[in-house]
Design goal:
heterodimer; A: 9 strands; B: mainly alpha
Chain lengths: 240, 260
């Protein structure tokens, strides 16, 4: 469904991505993890053409989303920063996206109710808390029933109820055959919903595997400890 | 096309809701009404407006557009991830804000246009409307371009102010210095080309030449009185058209390649 090969990007002198390659299968939740600045958001932004890679190939269902804007119809994207027009309401934002995409949104009512957004729908976005904006952003990403979902730190700022409901929803979406890629710093979330993880370090893909298998092979009680152990071992190797 | 019109309609509604657009209309209306009240001859008010609007419109438009686009930067992250071309997004925004800004300015000029109706020739009025509109479109395009070139909102505002200061005041000094450097022997065509680089000066020329008050223009006026013989307006029109296209084309090119 999603194929990435030799993806490279520099911001000035800093290498953000260095020949990253992976593919994502339908009916799979893949978690993109790594330290701050490792290139997770750059990968997501490259996939939806917000960032122009210096080199590499991106194919979504065989189409290049940068050359063919129509291919972005296959994507639902939730950004990391919810910098929406402050004077507009969530309803206006949803209608605006609906106009742009000219696609039906059969599940928007269900999503609004899932995240408890009904009382906030007419308020201006500038008055909403960060967590509520996260729920709005998540609704915007899920409302078109796109086959590929790209979610950047989706549970960040959300309350436990919304976070739990979102994870349940993501599992449902996977069962419906969707391809889901999410960035997260929450290893608990990754362990809970992720079928597969991609570990990035300084723009390089250093590990790929099933979260549970990684915990087992590292002989640690949690995924967070396993990942920390792997990254620290790599740093020690580099120093020596 | 339908999608572009949807996007344009949405942007136009956004633009018409912006306080700075309506503030520009009120400023213009207040200014022209004040001048009409202060002078007993509407022609004098028209001459004063013709001397002032080329400075005021670019200041309001460039700053407003730069701030506008800077405020939208984060939102582009959501918009540009949608199945829509970047060129379409940028053009819809440019056209909507240029149209809204120029209409607001013309609304502000309405008291003056009514007062001088029948007093001056329709060509002069048409020229005033045309140059105000052209400057409005040029300043929106320039403001958007500067915002795309600057990294931060503060940088965009600073660049807009510097550009305005240069074209409003410093460019004439540069021409004067250039003439002095070659001991007054610069060919008129060269001096004229230097003048045509400045859209503020071009807009001022277009109206002032029509009003036959070239003495208001100082050094520029003396050169132009000699050079223009009826073909001046066509040259001014072409220069303004070039200035509308240039920042918009550059802005579209940068916008379609920028990382968000």
């Amino acid at each position: 469904m999603v194929e990435v090969a030799d993806l490279s990007k520099r911001f000035g002198r800093r290498i953000a991505l260095d020949a990253v390659a992976f593919h994502l299968k339908p009916r799979t939740i893949t978690a993109l993890i790594g330290p701050n600045g490792s290139g997770k958001t750059t990968i997501l932004k490259s996939l939806c053409s917000l960032v122009r890679p210096d080199r590499g190939v991106i194919r979504i269902n065989g189409k290049d989303p940068r050359r063919d804007p129509g291919a972005r119809r296959l994507l639902g994207y939730m950004p990391q920063v919810y910098d929406f027009p402050e004077h507009r309401s969530p309803r206006q934002l949803m209608e605006w996206l609906k106009e742009i995409r000219a696609e039906p949104t059969p599940e928007v009512g269900e999503l609004v109710s899932l995240f408890g957004l009904a009382p906030e729908m007419e308020r201006s976005l500038g008055t909403l808390s960060w967590g509520t904006r996260a729920k709005v952003a998540c609704t915007l990403a899920l409302m078109f029933s796109s086959p590929v979902l790209l979610l950047d730190e989706p549970t960040s700022g959300m309350d436990p109820i919304a976070s739990t409901r979102l994870k349940d929803r993501l599992r449902q979406e996977r069962e419906r055959g969707k391809t889901i890629l999410l960035c997260s710093h929450s290893m608990a979330d990754v362990a809970e919903v992720g079928d597969r993880l991609l570990l990035l370090e300084r723009g390089n893909l250093v590990l790929e595997g099933n979260p549970q298998d990684i915990v087992t092979s590292e002989k640690t009680p949690t995924l967070e400890r396993a990942i920390a152990q792997i990254l620290e071992a790599r740093r020690r190797e580099k120093v020596s | 096309m339908r999608r572009f019109l949807n996007l344009f309609g949405r942007e136009l509604r956004e633009a018409l809701g912006r306080p700075w657009i309506w503030g520009s209309a009120v400023t213009f209306a207040g200014g022209t009404a004040g001048l009409l009240w202060a002078t007993d001859d509407p022609r004098k008010a028209l001459a004063a407006v013709a001397g002032l609007f080329p400075y005021v419109v670019p200041l309001l438009g460039t700053l407003g557009a730069a701030i506008e686009l800077a405020a939208e930067r984060g939102f582009f992250e959501l918009v540009l991830a949608q199945p829509i071309s970047r060129t379409m997004v940028f053009q819809a925004k440019f056209l909507a804000f240029s149209l809204a800004f120029s209409c607001a300015l013309l609304l502000g000029l309405l008291p003056l246009l009514i007062a001088v109706w029948g007093v001056v020739s329709p060509v002069t009025l048409l020229l005033l409307v045309g140059t105000v509109t052209a400057l409005a479109w040029i300043s929106i395009g320039s403001g958007f371009l500067l915002c795309l070139l600057a990294r931060e909102r503060v940088g965009a505002i600073g660049a807009a102010l510097v550009l305005w200061l240069y074209f409003a005041f410093l460019h004439d000094l540069v021409i004067l210095w250039a003439c002095q450097a070659v001991a007054g022997s610069a060919p008129d065509a060269v001096v004229l080309s230097l003048i045509l680089i400045n859209p503020i000066e071009v807009a001022r020329l277009a109206v002032v030449l029509q009003l036959d008050i070239a003495a208001l223009l100082g050094i520029t006026g003396s050169i132009l009185s000699r050079f223009f013989h009826g073909g001046g307006l066509a040259i001014c029109g072409s220069a303004l058209a070039f200035w509308i296209i240039l920042p918009n084309a550059a802005g579209t090119w940068i916008f379609s390649r920028k990382d968000f």
